[in-house]
Amino acid sequence: MNDAADETSSGRRLGAILPWGLAAALLVVLGGLVAAVVVGLTTEPAPDVADATPQMAPPPETPEPRVPPVADSSEPAPETSPETVPETTEAASAEPSPAKSPPAEPDSAGPAPRETVSAPEPPADPAPAPATPSPETVETPTPEVAAAPRIPVPPVAAPSRDALPPAPDPALVEPSSFGPLPRIGPTGREPWQAYARPFDKRDDRPRVAVILSGLGLSSAATEAAIQGLPGEVTLAFQPFADNIQQWIRLARAAGHEVLLNLPMEPVDFPENDPGPRALFVTLSPDENEERLRWALSRVTGYVGVVNHMGSRFTTSRDAMQPILAEIKARGLLYVDARSSARSVATVMATQMQVPRAINDRFLDAREVSRTTIDARLTELERIAKDAGVSIAIGQAFPVTIERVREWARTLDRKGIALVPVSAVVNAQADR
Question: What domains lie within the chain, and their CATH numbers?
Answer without folding.
Answer: 187-424 (3.20.20.370)
